[in-house]
Amino acid sequence: MTEPSGPTGATGATGGTGATDAPAMDAGSEPARRSGPHQALLAFYALFTAAAGARALVQLTTQYDVAPVAYWLSLAAAVTYALGWWAIRQASLGRTGFASVMLWVELAGVLTVGTLSLVHRQWFPDASVWSDYGIGYGCVPAVLPVLGLLWLRRRRAGGHAGSGS
Amino acid sequence: MPGVSTQITYIVVGYAVLVAVLAGTLAGRRAERAPWLDQMAWLLEVLLVVRALAGLGPLLGPDRPPSTSTYVGYLLASVAVLPIAMKSVEGDRAVWSSVVIAVAAVAVAVIGVRLEMTA
């Protein structure tokens, strides 16, 4: 529950949640969409897009000099979550190609930034969203792409019809 | 003795956790989303609005929160998350719609805690 960064850390985190969650709302009302685990994934991705995006923007605009690399990485994480949201939405409609790339990119990002933040602490005077494998967010950032990949694998194994259950 | 808004936060966070647990339990039983869960979620939203209104106080007084933009962001997010989640599962009472409510309830609980920390 606690953020490793300063007061602004979590901040924005959720600050823009409302606005960025909006796409989930559209997806929900899409008639072609089936109910399934992807709904929970989409909710998480929408939340993290907003959380990481708002946090990055607040930190980049108010305390840029403290840890620019970490803050840009947070913004990159936010973009990754936005693309991940889109990828999962597409996959839920049967187009799994983008998701099979995007979720691996996200996992690689979390693992790379998480490892770098532990090995080269001096590179991170302040935390980024993926610092210490996202421990500031209960390590959800590390778990999310894994869950996404498992869902994708199940979905592919079950064919398009399996997406709903 | 904690302030009024802090006390409301305790209630909101506790109630949000309860909603999350019940939504998770409902989903775990593979049951459809029951109407009472919607009612509980909307009651949570009412509490969040009350908390947000109480949270406007510090913004108007001389002792503004040290990180005002963060604080305002949390205030807005706290009232925005649940309606968006409810809208996203509108007309869908399948099992996973309860999980969406659970995720949203956990999110507002976390936001409530963070709000208190930034106040």
Could you say how many structural domains of chain A there are in total?
1
Shape of chain A: elongated
Overall pLDDT score of chain B: 92
Number of helices of chain A: 6
Structural category of chain B is mainly alpha
- Give the number of DSSP strands of chain A: 0
Quick check: average pLDDT of chain A? 82
Gross geometry of chain B: elongated
Which structural class should the secondary elements of chain A be placed in? mainly alpha
Approximately how much helix is present in the residues of chain A? 55-70%
What's the N-to-C terminus distance of chain B?
16 Å
Quaternary state of the chains:
heterodimer
How far apart the termini of chain A lie comes to 31 Å
Largest sheet of chain A: none
Question: Strand percentage of chain B, roughly?
Answer: under 5%
Total domain units of chain B = 1
Which percent band covers the strand fraction of chain A?
under 5%
Number of strands of chain B: 0
How do the helices and strands follow one another from N- to C-terminus of chain B? HHHHH
Tell me what the structure shows.
- The complex is a heterodimer of chains A (165) and B (119).
- Chain A has one domain (38-157).
- Helix content of chain A is 69%, strand content 0%.
- Chain A contains six helices and no strands.
- Chain A has helices at residues 7-15, 17-28, 37-62, 68-92, 97-119, 140-158.
- Chain A starts with 6 loop residues before the first helix and ends in a 7-residue tail after the last helix.
- The model of chain A is unreliable at 1-32 and 161-165 (pLDDT under 50).
- Chain B has one domain (4-118).
- Chain B has helices at residues 4-28, 35-55, 57-60, 68-88, 95-118.
- Chain A binds chain B through residues 1, 3, 6-8, 10-19, 21-22, 24-25, 27-29, 35-37, 39-40, 42-44, 47, 50, 54, 58, 62, and chain B through 66-67, 69-74, 76-78, 80-81, 84-85, 87-92, 94-97, 99-100, 103-104, 107, 110-111, 113-114, 117-118.
